[in-house]
Amino acid sequence: GAVVSQHPSRVICKSGTSVKIECRSLDFQATTMFWYRQFPKQSLMLMATSNEGSKATYEQGVEKDKFLINHASLTLSTLTVTSAHPEDSSFYICSAKTRHPQSSYEQYFGPGTRLTVT
Amino acid sequence: AQSVTQLGSHVSVSEGALVLLRCNYSSSVPPYLFWYVQYPNQGLQLLLKYTTGATLVKGINGFEAEFKKSETSFHLTKPSAHMSDAAEYFCAVSAHTGGFKTIFGAGTRLFVKA
User: Fold this and answer.
1) What is the mean pLDDT of residues A53-70?
2) Residue of A25, A113, B23, B112 with fewest CB within 10 Å of its CB?
């Protein structure tokens, strides 16, 4: 149980275009989803926290107009990178928390999406 | 606020030797502590976690970690390294304050020599 999927796993886009990444909790309802960014050989940097039905909370330094997050349902959150530039190339990972109170501290991670902007 | 420090960005051990990856944390409230493993171009896999109760926690693949409050540490160990253990390891902390936001350490790359 507690499986999180991401789609696509890899995407290449041209500079100036937008790309959407989906994060789905497959067998549980996720009250909260998190989006992370990971540069090569570095740790995960939290970008934003997304709660179902409300606006995402962005971490300091993350441009909310560039990284649009939508959490439309209890099983789906999307991250849209708008007007992508080569410096947005990175590995994006989502995670989800269940609504079960006894497991509320635990996050389940997706497999990640490799974004390359040319 | 929470923070995590992993000592040593790279650790190299011989196959069959003890694995010790160090993690120290800072938290103003009782922490939840995690170790994750990441293989190249993959997401994170949870190795083990500490929430409450027994301070020695056992995880998958023979790993274990001990929560030492007095030392604010949560070091990861494995008695005998396998080649398949070569990966990146992340220590992480979260707490009920701040909505269980998880803070990750910088990671430690484990190399296993034949």
Assistant:
1) 92
2) B112
Residue A27 CA to residue A98 CA, distance in Å, equals: 10
Distance CA A69, CA A20 (A): 9
Instruction: Specify burial of residue B65 (Cβ count, 10 A radius: 0-12, 13-18, 19+).
Output: buried
Cα–Cα dist A31/B111, whole Å: 37
Cα angle, residue B57 at apex, residues A100 and B1 outer, rounded to 5° = 65
Q: Which are the contacts of A47, defined by CB distance < 8 A and separation ≥ 6?
A: A35, A36, A37, A58, A59, A62, A67, A79
For residues A71 and A75, give the distance between their C-alpha atoms in angstroms, rounded to a whole number: 8
Q: Which residues of A touch B (CB under 8 A)?
A: 6, 32, 34, 41-44, 46, 49, 91, 93, 95, 97, 104-107, 109-112, 114
Q: What is the mean pLDDT of chain A?
A: 90
